[in-house]
UniProtKB/TrEMBL annotation:
Keywords: Lyase
Biochemical pathway: Lipid metabolism; butanoate metabolism
Catalytic function, reaction form: a short-chain (3S)-3-hydroxyacyl-CoA = a short-chain (2E)-enoyl-CoA + H2O
Pfam families according to UniProt: ECH_1
GO terms of molecular function: 3-hydroxyacyl-CoA dehydratase activity
Name this protein carries in UniProt: short-chain-enoyl-CoA hydratase
Signal sequence segment: none
Family: Belongs to the enoyl-CoA hydratase/isomerase family.
Record carries keyword Cytoplasm: no
Length: 258
């Protein structure tokens, strides 16, 4: 168990907790622990959904650890950016749904971490943004790429060029988050969703993620061709046979995950 990133396994899903008081700043040791947790979850088939949230009252994560910046050379800054991007890409590529449960501040790298998750649930009082321009820098953990894909280029530019955070309600309106719940309900609702997703067909879930993200990276024609290949792949699985048979026999399916 790490000191800065904690992993707890529940019934079919895992809860990853960022625990670096007071604002869960994403310093180098925390990123190392996060990478280790992601690696552990990659191979754990007993975990069929993941929740990521921040400890404490103040923040999901308030970004990279700014205290690390003064000593960074440009080359070291590029390495920091590429390292964070690689860890977030690996998180996004987990073969299972990943939910960001966002409370308080999700700023800079914290917002980028939430965007590297598949689904974002925000507490009503949460605030999300990319304030890097206020430091004279720009987002470096994928924010300039994932934010436009979620909210469109002009809203992404508005957020990155003003550095102004948005409320949870505004984040919902523009598509940055998918669900807004009362503050006290954030983790219970995230757990409820994680348990629901963990009960779905795991192979289909993995292939749906591959189809969606693979399609976003290419043309519509290549994306539909990818979908058809994955549709063929899923039909070769025991889960597809079980799912269809369960429907025809009017009973609940028993997923085997292959
Ligand atoms: C590649 C990725 C790049 C990035 O992510 S760049 C960083 C982007 N993030 C930011 O720019 C956010 C910076 N932080 C803030 O704007 C504010 O903070 C908050 C809005 C998050 C909270 O404001 P308030 O409630 O007034 O608290 P407080 O006194 O500012 O912060 C409490 C303590 O937390 C430290 N802290 C806050 N954010 C960071 C951070 N990102 N890195 C390192 N430390 C941080 C502060 O300095 C302070 O510390 P002390 O209590 O010792 O004075």
């Amino acid at each position: 168990m790490g000191q800065l990133v904690k992993l707890a396994r529940e019934d079919g899903y895992a809860v990853v907790t960022l625990d670096h008081p007071p604002v869960n700043a994403l310093n180098a040791p925390l990123l190392t622990e996060l990478e280790a947790v992601v690696a552990e979850l990659e191979g754990d088939e007993s975990v069929r959904a993941v929740i990521i949230h921040g400890a404490g009252e103040k923040a999901f994560a308030a970004g990279a650890d700014i205290t690390e910046f003064p000593r960074l050379s440009p080359d070291q800054a590029e390495s920091l950016s590429r390292r964070g991007q690689a860890i977030f890409d690996r998180l996004s590529a987990l073969p299972k749904p990943v939910i960001a449960a966002v409370h308080g501040y999700a700023l800079g790298g914290g917002c980028e971490l939430a965007m590297a998750c598949d689904i974002r649930i925000a507490a009503e009082s949460a605030r999300l943004g990319q304030p890097e321009i206020n430091l004279g820098i720009l987002p470096g953990y994928g924010g300039t790429q994932r934010l436009p894909r979620l909210v469109g280029p002009s809203r992404a530019l508005l957020m990155c060029l003003t550095g102004d955070p948005v409320s949870a309600a505004e984040a919902l309106r523009i598509g940055l988050v998918d669900l807004v719940v009362p503050d006290a309900e954030l983790l219970p609702r995230a757990r409820e969703l994680a348990a629901k997703l963990a009960g779905k067909a795991p192979v289909a879930a993995r292939l749906i993620k591959r189809a969606v993200y693979g399609g976003l990276a290419t043309t519509l024609a290549e994306g539909t061709a990818l979908e058809a290949r994955l549709f063929a792949e899923v039909f070769a699985t025991a889960d597809a046979r079980e799912g269809v048979q369960a429907f025809l026999e009017k009973r609940a399916p028993r997923w085997v995950g292959r």
